[in-house]
Amino acid sequence: MRRTAPPFFSAACSMEEATRTTSLFSVQIVCEEGKAMCGLEAGLRELARARLHGFSPQELRIAAAKQLAEAEQLFVERDQTYCTSLRDELVGHFLRGELVVGAEEEARLSKSCTERMTCADLHEYADKLRINRSCVIRAMEGRAATREDDISAAVATIQAEEDAGEITENAMFKVPENLIEKDGLMTAGSIVDERTFPNLGFTVVGLANGMRVAMKTTNFLDDQVLVRCFARGGMSEVSRAEHLDSLYANTIASELGMYGFKPEVLHDIMAGKRCEMSAKTGTYTRRVDGDTSPTDIESGLQLLHILFTSDVSRMLVPEELEAVLRMQEQAIRNRRRDPASVYNETIRHLVYGRTFQSKPLQVRDVRRMKPSEACRHFNANFSDPAEFTVVLVGAFDEGKVRPMLEKYLGSIPPPKVPRPRITEVKPVPFTFPAGVINKDLRVPMVEPMSMASITFPVNIPNPDYDTHLKTVPAVTLEGSAALTKEKLLCVFASSIIERRLLALLRFKFGEIYTCSAGTSFAYQDPAARGATLRGDVMINFSCDPSAGHRLAELAMEDVRAMQRDGPTAEEVATAVEVETRALEVRLQENAYWREYYEALHNSRLVPLMGGDLDALFAVTERVRGELMRGLTPEMIQAHMQRCLKADNRVVVVLRPQRPLWQRLCLPSPVTPEGLAVLTCVGAAVMVLLRHATRRA
């Protein structure tokens, strides 16, 4: 159980294969800065406890249930193994002599060994975990504070406790057998309407409480059912004053327990069940994503029921909350030391106009957040079932699932205090900065490298926008099809840019490690009510520390050349072929259809087409098919000239910080620090000259 003042934030154990004949038992502990020795002592104490007292039948039962669940999944999907998994197994066999017996036999061996495991077997293995048996202790810190003497002292402390008999058995706690007790449910709701979309492959039912459920049965993976529960309205609806509280709502709820149980208790309740659920509030939507086995769908639906009916503020315990807040403060400090995190946060803040939604979090923000208000936001976000649509995609029996929908989802009551339904989301007030912004980031690095990004705004004219009325009076099918076509053209243009830059920067100059180019419309209002549909194209690459700015200029020249001359016919054909093959793979994945249904459901064309998702699906596929069959270099060139502004961009280059003596003796005039040094030197020179003049 979580303590009120935990010595560490998290801990985990793993087995690693060091060589063909040597296996390693590894314990990883994550703790607060400056408390490495507290975490080390706690880890050593638990190892000693395992050696002295072994494990209880309850602990063995929970661990065995998890192992058997993994073996069952391996067996059920034995004929659907991804080629990458098989590849990794064969590589392990070649390099380390690992046994490769096939998924079916491996599952049987795992099940047989697990069922024969006893507490005595575990105790015998735990007895080998001693400090004097080739043990290596390593401390990794942002700032080195732990010495070898400190580690020796921690080891001596635990050894003294063990010799004195002060390490006792773990206190057992009761693990509930069920997520929901028999008398914990209200009267089940009924299915009141139903609609089938045969071309899309979905059946949509409506429950009496207003919640809708879309189901699609597939045979892609025999042990997978993906779940998504979504509704309109996210962080964009929150005012600046409430932004921090809403931003931390999911974090506070997940750390303290959003499903009516503390996380560690829920973890043990779900032992042996392959069912995972996570809630998230995005910019424009609220979501609960899940991945479950067909045999554990009922548990997933129970978790959804608990999420909507429980009050997370009941889980607020001041002592435990303090540990969560310290954990969040430490996470922000760690991000400040991580070059990649600083780099990505800087790009996001600059590209989206330095709004409060894109501002990087500071350590002081954690204490400014009000936990009770964060819980209130979370409860409000997941309270009204009539706002939500649940999507189930995978290998399940629809006939068996329907009674579960009525029992667990249909029994979710409406909120006691109804809140206004969100029919149109509030757009995020972001504005891409005008002109050219160049940002040079210098941060300390252990392994010097450089990263550079170039971000351009994309502005696609909205055919449905009335310039006189300054709004979209009516959404049209032709206008929406034109917007979809332009978005796809932007995706193809990004794909071609990426391949051109790879050929130029890696194979010609050989100075980059990675390179990518992508299109994003994440911050665009889904209803597209403005004069333009706004997005961005970002080029990102990592390279040698001295090459960042020079390669960024080369990338810019290549983008301008593509706008001026367009891509070649071969480049366009390659992009279409790659997208065709990628689409063939995605069509065989449950995640693709889950995402596709949500996109169609939230489309601006749904009211126009009377809710006919099959017709909308046909329009989307027709637009994509016609574009891919008829795509030409001239179309890509015209799109880039029309929608992408190369002279309006944000360029961020990340480079390693130079040693202090270099920054003082050879200051750089392009950095604030260098300008400050040069200013001080200039002022000192002026003072000396005046003093010399007076003496003369």
UniProtKB/TrEMBL annotation:
Protein source organism: Mantoniella antarctica
Gene Ontology MF terms in the entry: metal ion binding
Segments forming domain Peptidase M16 C-terminal: 376-576
Taxonomic path: Eukaryota, Viridiplantae, Chlorophyta, Mamiellophyceae, Mamiellales
One Pfam entry name: Peptidase_M16_C
Gene3D superfamilies according to UniProt: Metalloenzyme, LuxS/M16 peptidase-like
Transmembrane region(s): none
Domain of life of the native organism: Eukaryota
Protein name: Peptidase M16 C-terminal domain-containing protein
